[in-house]
Amino acid sequence: MNRWVILAAAGLLLSIVGQASAQSEGAPLPNIVFIMADDLGYGDLSCYGQKKFKTPNIDRLAAEGLRFTDYYAGATVCAPSRCVLMTGLHTGHCYIRGNSKLSLRAGDVTVAEMLQKAGYTCGQFGKWGLGGEKTGGMPTKQGFNTFYGYLDQHHAHNYFPTFLIRNTERVPLTNVVPEEDPLGGGVATERNQYSPDLIFGEALKFLDDNKSKPFFLYLSITLPHANNEAKQKGMEIPDYGSFKNEDWPDAQKGLAAMIRRLDDQVGEVLDKLNELGLDGKTLVMFTSDNGPHREGGNNPDFFDSNGPYRGIKRDLYEGGIRVPLLARWPGRIAKGTTTAYQGYHGDMFATFCDLAGIRTLPDLDSLSLAPLLLGRPEDQQTHKYLYWEFHERGFTQAVRHGEWKAVRDGGEKGKLQLYNLIDDPGETTDLAATDKEVARQMALFMKDAHVDSRDWPIRTEKKKPQAKADAK
């Protein structure tokens, strides 16, 4: 039987075995705070090269911890990236491989379920994107004790919605959205309650309420995503703050103000952990779900949001999937360190379970980063390759293997592009014709990684032309 067919049932059983292993060791369980921004580019943080504005609190994570330079999102858009994160399976194997209305099934195993069974209280605040209302994919049915925010990614476009979801119920807000769709999307005409502030307040309360027991906080902040329905005025923010007098387009003031607000929230999390005496007991990680967007009037070229890389959100070039990752754990992770280790969101499953003492896992595309985080790089396993596929514009695949990167449209009959990321990080020179053996091996990796899904059939029509930011 195909191993992916039996994964769910085996995973549930093995998570129970893992719980017993963790408990038998008797070691204190570390708290885990995983903060994920939405559509934040590699170059949007000053610790990754942003020059036009500063992100001092996020930079503090880098100064007090470990900064990854070659870390990747699970996908190039929202839902599959979050599915990879939660299930530890890359997009050639996971259930949700694109933005859709699919919901995780009751048998799908999430990292939150594993941690919950090991004694963690799990809370998610922000955007979920993996299960709609009244489905088995809701967070509280996938391992989280509590949830507050958006279930649906379309609903999450609206920063001034008429409701948010608490656990399984809608909580009304005082905003007015005259042409609201059934899922809560639209553009508010009366803006009274800003969702990122409400959601963040609930996350801080979760820390207060769980300070005396091990917790997993998944803070999936919607900043700096755009409200696509607002078109050119989609960078929804109460005010531009310190950027109001800059000689920039309004959309760029809005993006900078959103990132500044995000940075402030990271600072408040660190302050809260210090206040509660939890600094040395808590791993804090920060990343993004995919590369920067060209939506809501935003121009990713203005701030060079993808840094030195080609591509943006919806591309499988580096700019669409290479994202920041910062890890801070005072007394455990060395300060001010950097690594070029090639990991991705799927690795969080094995990492968090390893730190929680869970030794037996379901069959995953996930490696624990704990040795690397804790100063034992000689014990760190490496991936044979990293893999992505994308279904919105035909069928695109990408593989990273050491210094090499391959991208291919149209499946096995498509033309494979090959780049050496050490010599050519901007993916400008296709070497497939000159390094034929490498290209052949990369094609074999693609074949090995992809398992057919009836929900995600391979379509071979051409994708849309790339935007300006896609060619650096």
From TrEMBL:
This is Arylsulfatase. Residues 30-358 form the Sulfatase N-terminal domain. One of its GO terms (molecular function) is arylsulfatase activity. Gene3D superfamilies: 3.30.1120.10, Alkaline Phosphatase, subunit A. It is an enzyme of class 3 (hydrolase). It comes from Caulifigura coniformis. The keyword Hydrolase applies. Pfam families: Sulfatase (PF00884). Residues 1-22 form the signal peptide. Keywords: Hydrolase, Signal. InterPro entries: Alkaline_phosphatase_core_sf, GAG_Ulvan_Degrading_Sulfatases, Sulfatase_N. Its EC number is 3.1.6.1.
